[in-house]
Amino acid sequence: MQLLQTIFLVALLWTLHAQLRKPEFTRWWAWAWSASAAFLGIGVLALSIPRQWPIVRGTTVLVAVLFGCLQVPLLVFGAVSWRWPGAITRKWAVTGMAAALVTGPLSFGLSRLSQDAVTSFSIRHLPRTLALASALLFCTWVFFKRSRETQSRAAVITGVSCLAYALDQCFYAAAELLQIVGGPRTLLGGTLDISVVNSVNLISVDLVLMSGISLGMILLLVEGHQQAEWALLESVQHGRQVARENQALQAEIRKRHEAEQALRGSQETLAAVFRSSPCCMAITTLAEGRFLDVNEGFERLTGYSREAVVGRTAFELGLWVNPNARGDMLKELKAHGRVLGHEIQFRVKSGDVVTLLYSAELLPISGEPCVLSATQDLTPLKEVEARHRAILKAIPDWTFLQSRDGVYLDCQVRDQRNLLSPPEKFLGKNMRDVLPPDLAARLAASFDEALRLDQPVTMNYSLWIRDSLRFYEVRCVGTDNDQILSLVRDITDQKHAEYRARDLQDELAHAGRVMALGTLTGSLAHEINQPLTAIMANARAAERVLDMDQPDLVELRNALGDIVSDNRRIGEILRRLRLLLKKDRREHSPVDVNTMVSEVVELVHSDMVGRRVAVDVILAPNLPRVLGDRIQLQQVVLNLLLNAGGAVRPTDADDRRVSLTTSADNGHVLVSVADRGIGVSDEQLERMFEPFYTTKSDGMGLGLSICRTILDAHSGTIGARRNPDRGLTCSFSLAALSDAERHRDTGARTLVETGT
Amino acid sequence: MANAPHESATPTVFVVDDDPSVRTALERLMRCSGWTVRTFASAEDFLEQGEYASHACLVVDVHLGRMSGMELQARLAKRPSQLPVILTSGFDDGDAEAEAMRLGATAFLRKPFEVDALLSAIERGIARPPQLP
Q: For A179-190, how does the pLDDT look when each residue is reduced to its tens digit (9 = 90+)?
């Protein structure tokens, strides 16, 4: 019976082993119970072998005992590897098995010492029983420990079964021991006779124990399955959850990716907008104005490349023409957060100054306050403005529409005041009836030409309007239907300016000529004196010849001939003198020195510009007038200015200045012209004002001597002195007009006259 | 004209003036007055070519091309043998006259001068013994 159960258990274990995918512990136990089954089976077999074959029987018993002993370590190994998988190493396994294999034959050998069959049986089985009991107790401990840990019912049941089995074996062991030592056979009220114990136990107790262990094994299997199932379920659930989480994560990643893409897209768009905007745009730090980025428009406008600019400040580059403007901009920016449409000026790389319309906004970038600025180049606008202004200036004052033969059809008038007559008086009338005849005739001729050439014809004329002579420029244009459109501009002011300039020049030229001749005590006299001397000498020589005993007639003739030619020479000089003196000599009149001087400065302006010399004019206010010839005095000033202009050092930039000063001092008016030029030698200083004294290769040396003569005629003085640092100052002084004289009317002739 | 100084019976008058007609006329006058005359257009020419012995005289105009008559007089004053100098001038220059007389000019005549004045000045000059300081 026990054998059958044992075989059943073995089969169960081997099935379990296979089902649970061959865990270690089930293998050990399978082997253990296999060994037990073998022990029992071979034991039974041994009993059935007749006593007549003692060796066969003995060998069979030995084999049985061996198997029985083997059961112990296998059992232990199983329990250990159930609780601590992998703990049984080969070394342990071999050791255990070896111990068992030693114990078996040993106990068998020992049993041979006893003659009594029962005692030898007991001796034979005692070691095994004890060992088995211990092993089972150990198993029990393992199972109970585990059951406490994992609440495993299978473990509990198996543990209990093992315990019971262990106790059973203890019982056996006790009985065997008693048999061996021969002690009392009763324990706890029951007989411990081994033979009795044997037979009784064979059926009932082993059954229970085996069943318990079988159940435990089954439950283990079930538990194992359940656990596997749960594990599987859990893992499936976990897997599902992981999958769900994964999906969620994937979705999140996708969303984030999309957001990133969108952001990048918008960033790229913004960057593209910034970069390619036609406006000049820049991002600078608020604090220092350091450039963080600039766009193509900026590069184009300023001429600086992006690499050259980023990291530097606008001040380093010298962009702001007026650095204070940036300060004002910043103030407004901080107050309002933005600045709109300020007109500023930048100096670009080439050095040109451009006018810009500047707008900016505060923009925090990575926490730092920055300024995003956009500027628009106003230079083309300004040019257009200038052009418009020029066009406006050219707009005619009056526009007349006339028929081909001169009838006024329409007019457009800006200012009626300077019209010859009001529109209602001339519209519908012919110009021949309205305008002076010669003007009308000239206009008619222009009309014809305009229509004939099909091109504008320009003409100038003048008219007396309310007692003043006014000058006009008219442009006549033929229209499609044989009419004339006349665009008239009043150019009186221009003409006056022209005349004044021309007048002044003419006068000065004349004065120059006059004064060149005016010094009759000067060079002209000298020119006449020479031939006069020659005539005298020749005449006296001729007398001497005649006094000779034998006059040399050839000599005489030569002398007379020379006299005649010298006379002619004098006559020539006088003729020139007469020519030059044709214009009336002027009378002295009150002269405002400041105005007089300013006019000369205006005259030499272009000359000075050409020489790249600056003229500083310092006029004393409320300068008293002087009595004199305005033209002659202007001649003096002109001469001094031109000399000073010519004296500047050729290379010195700072000293290319000439200063003209007027001042009053103690009843005199002083005019000085100073240069910072090459200076003069002592001899030059002394002889400057002498006629014919010149240091210039092309000069006649008359200028300063003429000036001296003019000043002499004005009872004034002229002189020169060296400047303390460098250059020369020439100055002249005239007596100022006293109050009484100032108001005297001396019939002065003013320069500006609107004569044709 | 020989460069070597020579004792000549007729005294020599040197005329230096940049005006050609004056030169011609004065030369004629000197000849007709019985003096040897040599004319020069500039003071430099005279200094180069003019060698003189005693009984010579110089008539020089103040206003010459480069070196003036005054300067020539000053130069000649430094020489050991003193040549009498008569200065003429087409200008009314009082300072020049004073300076010329200070340096020992025989006469300072303003053009157009009286010919007699010139002739008498020349006679005085020629008659003056040489080596006068």
A: 777 655 555 545
